[in-house]
Design goal:
Length: 383
Protein backbone atom coordinates (compact mmCIF):
# COMPACT_ATOMS: atom_id res chain seq x y z
CA UNK A 1 0.00 0.00 0.00
CA UNK A 2 1.20 3.51 -0.73
CA UNK A 3 1.84 6.02 1.91
CA UNK A 4 -1.13 7.59 3.68
CA UNK A 5 -2.40 10.80 2.17
CA UNK A 6 -4.36 13.51 3.91
CA UNK A 7 -7.76 12.52 5.07
CA UNK A 8 -9.43 15.71 4.05
CA UNK A 9 -11.84 15.13 1.21
CA UNK A 10 -13.38 16.79 -1.54
CA UNK A 11 -16.81 15.65 -2.27
CA UNK A 12 -17.79 17.33 -5.50
CA UNK A 13 -21.41 16.41 -6.09
CA UNK A 14 -21.83 15.15 -9.62
CA UNK A 15 -24.92 12.97 -9.72
CA UNK A 16 -24.69 11.21 -6.85
CA UNK A 17 -20.52 -7.66 -4.34
CA UNK A 18 -19.65 -11.51 0.89
CA UNK A 19 -20.97 -14.96 0.72
CA UNK A 20 -20.76 -16.24 -2.83
CA UNK A 21 -24.02 -17.96 -3.51
CA UNK A 22 -23.97 -20.86 -5.93
CA UNK A 23 -26.14 -20.60 -8.98
CA UNK A 24 -29.46 -21.44 -7.39
CA UNK A 25 -32.13 -23.15 -9.44
CA UNK A 26 -35.38 -21.34 -10.03
CA UNK A 27 -38.10 -22.07 -7.56
CA UNK A 28 -39.38 -18.50 -7.37
CA UNK A 29 -41.97 -16.39 -9.07
CA UNK A 30 -40.60 -14.56 -12.12
CA UNK A 31 -43.26 -11.85 -12.24
CA UNK A 32 -41.92 -8.39 -11.55
CA UNK A 33 -42.86 -4.79 -11.05
CA UNK A 34 -40.89 -3.16 -13.85
CA UNK A 35 -41.43 0.32 -12.52
CA UNK A 36 -39.70 -0.51 -9.25
CA UNK A 37 -41.82 2.11 -7.55
CA UNK A 38 -43.78 0.03 -5.07
CA UNK A 39 -42.33 0.30 -1.60
CA UNK A 40 -43.56 -3.08 -0.43
CA UNK A 41 -42.38 -4.97 -3.51
CA UNK A 42 -39.77 -6.89 -1.51
CA UNK A 43 -41.68 -7.16 1.77
CA UNK A 44 -42.00 -10.96 1.53
CA UNK A 45 -38.25 -11.26 1.03
CA UNK A 46 -36.96 -8.83 3.68
CA UNK A 47 -36.38 -10.61 6.98
CA UNK A 48 -34.17 -8.11 8.82
CA UNK A 49 -35.58 -5.21 10.84
CA UNK A 50 -35.37 -1.75 9.36
CA UNK A 51 -32.11 0.00 10.32
CA UNK A 52 -32.14 3.05 12.60
CA UNK A 53 -32.62 6.38 10.89
CA UNK A 54 -29.44 7.96 9.60
CA UNK A 55 -28.16 11.00 11.53
CA UNK A 56 -27.73 14.35 9.87
CA UNK A 57 -24.33 14.53 8.24
CA UNK A 58 -22.23 17.63 7.71
CA UNK A 59 -21.53 18.68 4.15
CA UNK A 60 -17.95 18.12 3.04
CA UNK A 61 -15.86 20.96 1.68
CA UNK A 62 -13.81 21.04 -1.48
CA UNK A 63 -10.73 18.86 -1.45
CA UNK A 64 -8.26 21.38 -2.69
CA UNK A 65 -9.90 24.19 -0.71
CA UNK A 66 -11.19 27.06 -2.78
CA UNK A 67 -11.06 28.14 -6.38
CA UNK A 68 -7.86 27.37 -8.26
CA UNK A 69 -6.65 28.15 -11.76
CA UNK A 70 -5.76 25.02 -13.74
CA UNK A 71 -5.59 26.72 -17.14
CA UNK A 72 -1.90 25.95 -17.55
CA UNK A 73 -2.35 22.19 -17.11
CA UNK A 74 -2.20 19.96 -20.18
CA UNK A 75 -3.96 16.77 -19.16
CA UNK A 76 -3.52 13.29 -20.61
CA UNK A 77 -6.47 10.92 -20.09
CA UNK A 78 -5.70 7.29 -20.94
CA UNK A 79 -9.02 5.42 -21.03
CA UNK A 80 -9.54 1.74 -20.30
CA UNK A 81 -11.38 -0.41 -22.88
CA UNK A 82 -14.69 1.14 -23.90
CA UNK A 83 -13.46 4.71 -23.67
CA UNK A 84 -15.64 7.77 -23.61
CA UNK A 85 -19.21 6.69 -24.30
CA UNK A 86 -19.19 3.45 -22.30
CA UNK A 87 -21.96 4.87 -20.05
CA UNK A 88 -19.98 3.69 -17.07
CA UNK A 89 -16.43 3.82 -15.71
CA UNK A 90 -14.69 5.72 -18.49
CA UNK A 91 -17.52 8.20 -18.86
CA UNK A 92 -17.19 8.96 -15.15
CA UNK A 93 -13.51 9.80 -15.63
CA UNK A 94 -14.38 11.93 -18.63
CA UNK A 95 -16.95 13.79 -16.55
CA UNK A 96 -14.17 14.70 -14.13
CA UNK A 97 -12.05 16.33 -16.83
CA UNK A 98 -15.12 17.97 -18.37
CA UNK A 99 -15.87 19.58 -15.01
CA UNK A 100 -12.24 20.68 -14.74
CA UNK A 101 -12.67 22.49 -18.04
CA UNK A 102 -15.84 24.17 -16.84
CA UNK A 103 -14.77 25.02 -13.29
CA UNK A 104 -10.99 25.23 -13.27
CA UNK A 105 -10.21 26.71 -16.66
CA UNK A 106 -8.54 23.61 -18.13
CA UNK A 107 -8.25 24.06 -21.89
CA UNK A 108 -6.33 20.98 -23.03
CA UNK A 109 -7.26 17.34 -22.42
CA UNK A 110 -5.79 14.72 -24.73
CA UNK A 111 -7.69 11.40 -24.69
CA UNK A 112 -6.65 7.93 -25.86
CA UNK A 113 -8.46 4.60 -25.45
CA UNK A 114 -7.15 1.07 -24.89
CA UNK A 115 -8.44 -1.81 -26.99
CA UNK A 116 -9.55 -5.07 -25.41
CA UNK A 117 -6.77 -7.14 -27.02
CA UNK A 118 -3.86 -4.72 -27.05
CA UNK A 119 -0.44 -5.75 -25.78
CA UNK A 120 1.12 -4.24 -22.68
CA UNK A 121 3.58 -2.46 -24.93
CA UNK A 122 0.70 -0.49 -26.46
CA UNK A 123 -0.31 0.86 -23.06
CA UNK A 124 3.28 1.83 -22.32
CA UNK A 125 3.58 3.54 -25.68
CA UNK A 126 0.36 5.48 -25.04
CA UNK A 127 1.70 6.82 -21.75
CA UNK A 128 5.19 7.45 -23.16
CA UNK A 129 3.70 9.48 -26.01
CA UNK A 130 1.59 11.55 -23.65
CA UNK A 131 4.63 12.34 -21.52
CA UNK A 132 6.71 13.14 -24.61
CA UNK A 133 3.97 15.51 -25.76
CA UNK A 134 4.31 17.46 -22.54
CA UNK A 135 1.01 16.37 -21.01
CA UNK A 136 1.06 16.77 -17.25
CA UNK A 137 -0.65 15.33 -15.30
CA UNK A 138 -1.43 12.01 -16.98
CA UNK A 139 -4.39 10.04 -15.63
CA UNK A 140 -4.55 6.29 -16.34
CA UNK A 141 -8.11 5.01 -16.04
CA UNK A 142 -8.08 1.47 -14.71
CA UNK A 143 -5.89 -1.09 -12.93
CA UNK A 144 -4.87 -2.61 -16.28
CA UNK A 145 -2.49 0.33 -16.64
CA UNK A 146 -0.55 -0.51 -13.46
CA UNK A 147 2.43 -2.28 -15.11
CA UNK A 148 2.74 0.50 -17.68
CA UNK A 149 2.51 3.32 -15.16
CA UNK A 150 5.11 1.55 -13.01
CA UNK A 151 7.43 1.34 -16.03
CA UNK A 152 6.86 4.80 -17.49
CA UNK A 153 6.58 7.07 -14.44
CA UNK A 154 10.20 6.66 -13.23
CA UNK A 155 11.41 7.76 -16.68
CA UNK A 156 9.52 11.04 -16.35
CA UNK A 157 10.05 12.25 -12.76
CA UNK A 158 8.80 15.73 -13.63
CA UNK A 159 5.46 14.42 -14.86
CA UNK A 160 2.67 13.64 -12.43
CA UNK A 161 0.68 10.44 -12.96
CA UNK A 162 -2.56 9.24 -11.37
CA UNK A 163 -4.00 5.76 -11.73
CA UNK A 164 -7.58 4.76 -10.98
CA UNK A 165 -8.17 1.48 -9.10
CA UNK A 166 -4.58 0.65 -8.24
CA UNK A 167 -2.43 1.53 -5.24
CA UNK A 168 0.52 -0.80 -5.84
CA UNK A 169 2.93 1.68 -7.43
CA UNK A 170 5.37 3.22 -4.99
CA UNK A 171 6.70 6.15 -6.99
CA UNK A 172 6.80 9.77 -5.77
CA UNK A 173 5.10 11.06 -8.93
CA UNK A 174 2.24 8.50 -8.94
CA UNK A 175 -1.04 9.10 -7.10
CA UNK A 176 -3.52 6.22 -6.58
CA UNK A 177 -7.23 6.95 -6.87
CA UNK A 178 -8.96 3.98 -5.23
CA UNK A 179 -12.49 3.35 -3.99
CA UNK A 180 -14.57 1.31 -1.53
CA UNK A 181 -16.69 -0.33 -4.25
CA UNK A 182 -17.85 -2.98 -1.79
CA UNK A 183 -19.53 -0.34 0.39
CA UNK A 184 -21.64 1.14 -2.39
CA UNK A 185 -22.42 -2.33 -3.69
CA UNK A 186 -23.72 -3.34 -0.25
CA UNK A 187 -26.42 -0.70 -0.68
CA UNK A 188 -27.15 -2.05 -4.17
CA UNK A 189 -27.73 -5.47 -2.62
CA UNK A 190 -30.13 -3.97 -0.07
CA UNK A 191 -32.06 -2.21 -2.83
CA UNK A 192 -32.21 -5.39 -4.92
CA UNK A 193 -33.84 -7.38 -2.12
CA UNK A 194 -36.32 -4.65 -1.27
CA UNK A 195 -37.36 -4.42 -4.93
CA UNK A 196 -37.41 -8.16 -5.71
CA UNK A 197 -40.76 -9.94 -5.86
CA UNK A 198 -39.28 -13.41 -6.33
CA UNK A 199 -36.61 -13.05 -3.60
CA UNK A 200 -34.14 -14.01 -6.31
CA UNK A 201 -31.51 -11.59 -7.63
CA UNK A 202 -28.46 -11.63 -9.90
CA UNK A 203 -24.98 -10.21 -10.42
CA UNK A 204 -23.03 -9.97 -13.68
CA UNK A 205 -19.35 -9.06 -13.44
CA UNK A 206 -17.28 -8.03 -16.43
CA UNK A 207 -13.87 -9.59 -15.70
CA UNK A 208 -13.19 -11.93 -12.78
CA UNK A 209 -10.56 -9.84 -11.01
CA UNK A 210 -10.09 -8.77 -7.36
CA UNK A 211 -11.48 -5.35 -8.27
CA UNK A 212 -14.79 -6.62 -9.67
CA UNK A 213 -15.01 -9.16 -6.87
CA UNK A 214 -15.32 -6.17 -4.52
CA UNK A 215 -18.60 -5.24 -6.25
CA UNK A 216 -19.77 -8.86 -6.01
CA UNK A 217 -18.78 -9.20 -2.36
CA UNK A 218 -20.57 -6.06 -1.19
CA UNK A 219 -23.69 -6.76 -3.25
CA UNK A 220 -24.12 -10.25 -1.85
CA UNK A 221 -23.35 -9.16 1.72
CA UNK A 222 -25.91 -6.37 1.47
CA UNK A 223 -28.57 -8.71 0.11
CA UNK A 224 -27.95 -11.28 2.83
CA UNK A 225 -27.94 -8.58 5.51
CA UNK A 226 -31.60 -7.87 4.82
CA UNK A 227 -32.80 -11.34 3.84
CA UNK A 228 -31.91 -14.84 5.04
CA UNK A 229 -33.82 -16.47 2.19
CA UNK A 230 -32.73 -14.54 -0.90
CA UNK A 231 -31.35 -16.57 -3.85
CA UNK A 232 -28.44 -15.08 -5.78
CA UNK A 233 -27.21 -15.80 -9.30
CA UNK A 234 -23.60 -14.87 -9.93
CA UNK A 235 -21.77 -14.77 -13.29
CA UNK A 236 -18.67 -13.26 -14.93
CA UNK A 237 -18.25 -12.52 -18.62
CA UNK A 238 -14.53 -13.25 -18.92
CA UNK A 239 -11.68 -14.59 -16.74
CA UNK A 240 -8.86 -12.52 -15.31
CA UNK A 241 -6.55 -11.29 -18.06
CA UNK A 242 -9.29 -11.20 -20.70
CA UNK A 243 -10.64 -7.66 -20.64
CA UNK A 244 -13.24 -8.29 -23.37
CA UNK A 245 -15.77 -8.77 -20.57
CA UNK A 246 -15.95 -5.00 -20.22
CA UNK A 247 -16.89 -4.49 -23.86
CA UNK A 248 -19.21 -7.34 -24.88
CA UNK A 249 -22.87 -6.30 -24.57
CA UNK A 250 -24.01 -9.43 -26.42
CA UNK A 251 -22.41 -11.70 -23.83
CA UNK A 252 -23.75 -9.51 -21.04
CA UNK A 253 -27.21 -9.99 -22.52
CA UNK A 254 -26.85 -13.78 -22.64
CA UNK A 255 -25.57 -14.08 -19.07
CA UNK A 256 -28.22 -11.77 -17.63
CA UNK A 257 -30.99 -13.47 -19.60
CA UNK A 258 -29.88 -16.82 -18.18
CA UNK A 259 -30.04 -15.46 -14.64
CA UNK A 260 -33.49 -14.03 -15.28
CA UNK A 261 -34.64 -17.36 -16.74
CA UNK A 262 -33.61 -19.01 -13.48
CA UNK A 263 -35.85 -16.59 -11.58
CA UNK A 264 -33.76 -13.51 -10.80
CA UNK A 265 -35.89 -10.39 -11.12
CA UNK A 266 -33.28 -7.78 -10.20
CA UNK A 267 -29.81 -7.88 -11.80
CA UNK A 268 -26.80 -5.74 -10.85
CA UNK A 269 -23.90 -5.42 -13.25
CA UNK A 270 -20.29 -4.35 -12.84
CA UNK A 271 -19.34 -4.91 -16.46
CA UNK A 272 -18.56 -1.58 -18.08
CA UNK A 273 -19.97 -1.21 -21.59
CA UNK A 274 -21.27 -4.80 -21.42
CA UNK A 275 -23.91 -3.48 -19.03
CA UNK A 276 -25.96 -2.33 -22.02
CA UNK A 277 -26.62 -6.00 -22.79
CA UNK A 278 -27.59 -6.64 -19.16
CA UNK A 279 -30.10 -3.80 -19.28
CA UNK A 280 -31.55 -5.06 -22.57
CA UNK A 281 -31.97 -8.54 -21.10
CA UNK A 282 -33.67 -7.15 -18.01
CA UNK A 283 -36.12 -5.17 -20.09
CA UNK A 284 -36.89 -8.12 -22.36
CA UNK A 285 -37.34 -10.40 -19.34
CA UNK A 286 -39.54 -7.93 -17.45
CA UNK A 287 -36.94 -7.67 -14.71
CA UNK A 288 -35.25 -4.74 -12.99
CA UNK A 289 -31.61 -3.69 -13.15
CA UNK A 290 -29.03 -1.78 -11.15
CA UNK A 291 -26.35 0.22 -12.94
CA UNK A 292 -22.79 0.94 -11.95
CA UNK A 293 -20.14 3.64 -11.78
CA UNK A 294 -22.21 6.46 -13.32
CA UNK A 295 -25.87 7.33 -12.77
CA UNK A 296 -26.90 5.11 -15.67
CA UNK A 297 -30.54 6.19 -15.55
CA UNK A 298 -29.31 9.44 -17.08
CA UNK A 299 -26.86 7.95 -19.62
CA UNK A 300 -27.92 8.56 -23.22
CA UNK A 301 -26.38 5.33 -24.51
CA UNK A 302 -28.72 3.24 -22.33
CA UNK A 303 -31.71 5.59 -22.43
CA UNK A 304 -33.94 2.94 -24.05
CA UNK A 305 -33.68 0.88 -20.85
CA UNK A 306 -33.95 3.63 -18.25
CA UNK A 307 -37.42 2.52 -17.16
CA UNK A 308 -35.99 -0.69 -15.65
CA UNK A 309 -32.93 0.91 -14.01
CA UNK A 310 -33.97 1.37 -10.37
CA UNK A 311 -30.65 2.80 -9.14
CA UNK A 312 -26.93 2.75 -9.86
CA UNK A 313 -23.99 2.17 -7.53
CA UNK A 314 -22.15 5.39 -8.18
CA UNK A 315 -18.39 5.13 -8.06
CA UNK A 316 -17.31 8.72 -8.17
CA UNK A 317 -14.38 8.46 -10.50
CA UNK A 318 -15.54 11.87 -11.70
CA UNK A 319 -15.01 13.30 -8.22
CA UNK A 320 -11.61 11.64 -7.82
CA UNK A 321 -10.37 12.84 -11.21
CA UNK A 322 -11.63 16.38 -10.68
CA UNK A 323 -10.21 16.58 -7.18
CA UNK A 324 -6.86 15.24 -8.37
CA UNK A 325 -6.66 17.89 -11.10
CA UNK A 326 -7.66 20.55 -8.61
CA UNK A 327 -5.01 19.38 -6.13
CA UNK A 328 -2.32 19.32 -8.84
CA UNK A 329 -3.23 22.86 -9.85
CA UNK A 330 -3.00 23.97 -6.25
CA UNK A 331 0.26 22.10 -5.73
CA UNK A 332 -0.96 20.05 -2.75
CA UNK A 333 -1.79 16.38 -3.29
CA UNK A 334 -1.94 15.71 0.45
CA UNK A 335 -5.55 16.88 0.53
CA UNK A 336 -6.71 13.77 -1.32
CA UNK A 337 -8.17 10.90 0.73
CA UNK A 338 -6.40 7.56 0.83
CA UNK A 339 -9.61 5.89 -0.35
CA UNK A 340 -12.83 7.28 -1.75
CA UNK A 341 -15.48 5.57 0.41
CA UNK A 342 -19.00 6.25 1.71
CA UNK A 343 -17.70 8.58 4.39
CA UNK A 344 -16.28 10.96 1.81
CA UNK A 345 -19.01 10.40 -0.79
CA UNK A 346 -16.56 8.52 -2.99
CA UNK A 347 -19.22 5.86 -3.61
CA UNK A 348 -22.98 5.97 -3.22
CA UNK A 349 -26.29 5.26 -4.91
CA UNK A 350 -28.38 7.14 -7.45
CA UNK A 351 -31.98 8.27 -6.94
CA UNK A 352 -32.77 9.42 -10.49
CA UNK A 353 -36.19 8.31 -11.64
CA UNK A 354 -37.53 8.09 -8.09
CA UNK A 355 -37.53 4.29 -8.09
CA UNK A 356 -35.83 3.94 -4.70
CA UNK A 357 -37.36 7.00 -3.04
CA UNK A 358 -39.59 4.74 -0.95
CA UNK A 359 -36.59 2.91 0.54
CA UNK A 360 -34.18 5.83 0.76
CA UNK A 361 -34.49 5.86 4.56
CA UNK A 362 -33.49 2.19 4.60
CA UNK A 363 -30.51 2.73 2.31
CA UNK A 364 -29.37 5.75 4.28
CA UNK A 365 -29.75 3.83 7.53
CA UNK A 366 -27.42 1.10 6.29
CA UNK A 367 -25.07 3.72 4.85
CA UNK A 368 -24.78 5.35 8.27
CA UNK A 369 -24.00 1.98 9.90
CA UNK A 370 -21.20 1.37 7.39
CA UNK A 371 -19.78 4.84 7.95
CA UNK A 372 -19.79 4.53 11.75
CA UNK A 373 -18.28 1.03 11.61
CA UNK A 374 -21.30 -0.88 12.91
CA UNK A 375 -21.30 -2.82 9.64
CA UNK A 376 -17.97 -3.98 8.20
CA UNK A 377 -18.19 -4.72 4.50
CA UNK A 378 -15.73 -7.27 3.14
CA UNK A 379 -14.03 -6.61 -0.19
CA UNK A 380 -13.66 -10.33 -0.91
CA UNK A 381 -16.42 -12.83 -1.71
CA UNK A 382 -16.67 -15.69 0.78
CA UNK A 383 -17.15 -19.13 -0.71
Amino acid sequence: MRRMRGTALAAVTMAGVLTLAGCAKDTGNSSNNASGSTGNSGSSCVTAPKPPAAPELATSSSAAGGKVDASKLKIGLAFDVGGRGDASFNDAAAAGTDKAKADLGVTQVSESTASASEAESAKQQRLEQMAADGLNPIIAVGFAYAPSVAAVAPKHPGTKFAIVDDDSINQPNVTPLVFAEEQGSFLAGVAAVYKSKSCHIGFVGGVNTPLIQKFEAGYIQGAKAVSDKVKIEDEYLSPAGDFSGFQDPAKGNVKAAAEIAKGADVVYHAAGASGKGVFDAAKAGKALAIGVDSDQYNQKTVAADKDIIITSMIKRVDVAVFNYIQAVAKGDLSVLPKRFDLKVDGVGYATSGGKVDDIKDVLDGYKAQIIDGTIKVSDKPSK
